[in-house]
Amino acid sequence: MIEADNLSKFYGDFAATRDVTFTINRGEVAAFLGPNGAGKSTTMKLLTGYLAPSAGTARIAGYNMAADRLEGAKHLGYLPENGPLYPEMTPRSLLQFFGKARGMSREQIEDRLAAVVDLCKLGSVIGKPIGKLSKGFRQRVGMAQVLMHEPDVLILDEPTAGLDPNQIREVRDTIRRLGQTKTILLSTHILQEVEAMCNRVIFINEGRIVFDGSPGELAAEEKNLDERFHQLSVG
Fold first, then answer.
1. pLDDT-based confidence at residue 51 (cuts at 50, 70, 90)
2. pLDDT band at 223, cuts 50/70/90?
3. Which of 26, 69, 166, 227 is the most buried (most CB within 10 A)?
4. How far apart are CA 146 and CA 141, in angstroms?
5. For the chain, what is the largest distance between any 2 Cα atoms, rounded to a whole number of angstroms?
6. Per CATH, which fold does 2-75+151-234 belong to?
7. Which of 174, 120, 181, 109 is nearest to 152 (CA)?
8. Domain map (residue ranges) of the chain
9. Which DSSP string corresponds to 158-211?
């Protein structure tokens, strides 16, 4: 469902990513782990078609995101870090707007709106301006927006960044529920995210994949994810 085939992105002589290759199959929840500046966000932008690769291929649900981005986007929900929201709109009007932008009918929009509001627990704020909501609620609105068209694949970039412990718990619970039916790639540098939500870890450092396996395999040598993270980060 998610394929990176020798993905590279160069800015002059600087390689943001180099020969990144992995495949994530249907039903997997994979953590994309690494220190700040390792290339996580760049890789996600390449996978979603937001950036064009300097070399290599990104595919979502079998679609080449450079050549068939619109078809691939039908299967994809992408939540960037600090994703853009319109503060003067309410969650209801925002979700209706994005539903129309994706060509959904009025009936489809209303059906999906009810479903995502329930899933993301937005009922108490559905009519309030987004600009007046807490960061936790704004993150839930962003999650609801990417779920409106029922995508098969979710790519989430630092979905719990800046949230308090209660808000983090709520977002994790939502992602765990989604992971029962969808393929998810979750970017993070927070080790608790890996243990709480994921059955696979892909670790990137300095633009290259340095580990791909289960959370247990990641910590197997040290029995400690913090120490293993440090080892992989310093090469």
1. very high
2. low
3. 69
4. 9
5. 54
6. Rossmann fold (3.40.50)
7. 181
8. 2-75+151-234, 86-150
9. STTTT--HHHHHHHHHHHHHHTTTSEEEEEES-HHHHHHH-SEEEEEETTEEEE
